[in-house]
Amino acid sequence: MSQIAPNAEARRPATRAPGRHEPAAPAPVTLDVFRSLEREHDFRPLRAEGAVPPGLRGTLYRNGPSVFDAGVDPHWFDGTGAVSAVRFTDGGAEGAVRVLHTPSADGDAGRRGASFGAYGQKMSWRRRLAALFGGQSLRNVANINVLAWQKRTFAFYESTLPLEIDPVTLRSIGETDLGGVVAKGMNAHPHRVPARRATYQTGLRVGPKVLLDLFELPDEGAARLLTSVELPGVMEAHDFFATRDHLVLVLPPLWCSSLAMLVDGGFASSLRWRPEEGTRVIVIPIDEPERRVVLDTDALWYWHGVNAFERPDGRIELDLVGYQDFASNAAWIETVTRGGLTTGNGSSVRRAVIDKEARRVSWEERWPHACEFGSVSPAFASQAARVAWLAGYPQGDEGRALWSRIVRLDLQSGDAQRIDPGTRGLVSEPVVVPRSEREDDVWVLAYVHDQNAGATFLGIWDGARPEHDAVARVWFDQQLPPTLHGTFVRA
Ligand SMILES: [Fe+2]
Questions:
Q1: Domain that holds residue 451
Q2: What is the C-alpha separation between 447 and 459, in angstroms, rounded?
Q3: DSSP symbols for 51-98
Q4: Ligand 1 mean position, distance from CA 145 (Å)
Q5: 238 alpha carbon to ligand 1 midpoint, in Å?
Q6: What is the pLDDT of residues 88-114, one digit of tens each?
Q7: Which of 15, 134, 135, 219 could join 207 via S-S bond, C-beta 3.0 to 4.6 A?
């Protein structure tokens, strides 16, 4: 377990690589994320600084909005996805990047007045009317996440079909319903439960009823629809939680107004924050999904969970990166993705303890500092993990712009270390690769969009020695558009 002394952060304001000198208040990382990908290419050698660890063999896949040509005033989330990959072999590190293609994205590409809507972009009248009857209204930009499942690889957007891609060429193969299992679409955050040798995934299905489908993708055998939860309306349900025995939906009160959608035609502009309704928590036993328990708790906004597990006493504990409300977070995203500065975003790591018997959800703040994109070692996901890895900030400069530090957070003690990537650059979601049975014996991989070099590198950190500099940096020869999520697939 961790060798970090208690209250490490209080004594050490910001973790620095040895020999690096960081000013007391480093400049916040600002970046206009709407610059499209410059060049696609197949796998080719990447320049490496340092030595890629011999035990690290496999491919990191990352996805993010990368081509902005379909709307006049796009939102970051509207850009067509591109998957980039870094492959580690005995011969060195190789990188590739490819723009993704779906019928809806290709059909709208380059058009003035696109037909399909996206997160921010408004849809045509034809699509609005079609949406009323359950027709496809969103352009599948496939730009959020990547899942490797049964030797197949998929890119995800939300409420649209998974896009299968070739794991070697990264070229788009086509949208798939996984053998008729996915009626309408999947969302972007699969969660694997190692004890069940299965991955779970949600999907919002809008039609005469609004259903949140829950899917099971076993390591072997066919995918299946586990259950569907009827919702009173269309809502933003980006992420969810999986424990060994339960799936947990934490549904903030962010509803899409059907009337606004019809009149206005935009998804984001039709979202309504209704804090008086509180956040709904639905606990679904995986083996008996109809025996679900529905609880209500205080309103909060979040995009991403960190981890969840069952305590020995039967209560469920989950951690997420929470915000006070949706509007302030939406305004923050608008500003920072256009290269602006804010006064902060109010995010923090929050813990919920769910007592199904007492029908109570209690909250506490675990780490009162701005951050995003938290996860634990995949070997410990859905279990009582102690160490979380997040994208964050230097102390004293939190949430004003884009993320510029990797954060190692001890979820029990609340102690944190902030890893300086060694340059001024945007730090992506850290991806954790286990290398032994010990939770903190991991490699931590993160893209850094280096503003000094004008190029993106993948940094490899030793998770057991986060105070040390990266063991290796492998460089793309261009600045990749910032990514949202990804996965590492072992060789
Ligand atoms: Fe996400």
A1: 8-490
A2: 6
A3: ---TT--EEEEEEEEEE--S-SS--GGGSEEEEEEEEEETTEEEEEEE
A4: 7
A5: 6
A6: 999 999 999 999 999 998 887 766 666
A7: 134
Number of structural domains (the chain) is 1
Compute the distance between CA of residue 350 and CA of residue 361 in angstroms, rounded to an integer: 12
CA–centroid distance, residue 20 to ligand 1 (Å): 32
Ligand 1 centroid to Cα of residue 92, in Å, is 30
Does residue 382 fall inside a structural domain?
yes
Structure confidence by residue, pLDDT tens digits, 18-62: 434 444 567 899 988 999 999 999 999 999 999 999 999 999 999
CATH code of residue 344: 2.130.10
CA 330, CA 32: separation in Å to the nearest integer? 16
Provide, rounded to the nearest whole percent, the portion of the chain with pLDDT above 90.
82
pLDDT tens-digit map of 362-380: 999 999 999 999 999 999 9
Residue 448 has pLDDT above 60, yes or no: yes
Distance 484 CA to ligand 1 centre (A): 6
Query: How far does the centroid of ligand 1 lie from the alpha carbon of residue 134, in Å?
Result: 24
Give the residue with greater pLDDT, 8 vs 391. Answer: 391
Over 90: is that where the pLDDT of 71 sits? no
What is the strand order of the sheet 172-175 is part of? 145-149, 152-156, 163-165, 172-175
Flag whether 3 is in a domain: no
How many Å lie between the centroid of ligand 1 and the Cα of residue 190? 10
Q: Does the residue 346 lie in any domain?
A: yes
Q: How many CB atoms lie within 10 A of CB 413?
A: 16
The one-letter amino acid code at 380 reads F
Mean pLDDT of 228-244: 95
Distance 223 CA to ligand 1 centre (A): 22
Per-residue pLDDT, averaged over 431-445, amounts to 96
Q: Which residues contact 93 (CB under 8 A, 6 or more apart)?
A: 45, 46, 48, 52, 86, 87, 458, 472, 474
pLDDT at residue 108 in the model? 76
b/e burial code for range 390-406 (CB count within 10 A of at least 16 → b): bbbbbbebbbbbbbbbb
User: Cα of 294 to ligand 1 centre, how many Å?
Assistant: 24
- Expressed in angstroms and rounded, the spacing between residue 304 Cα and the centre of ligand 1 is 6
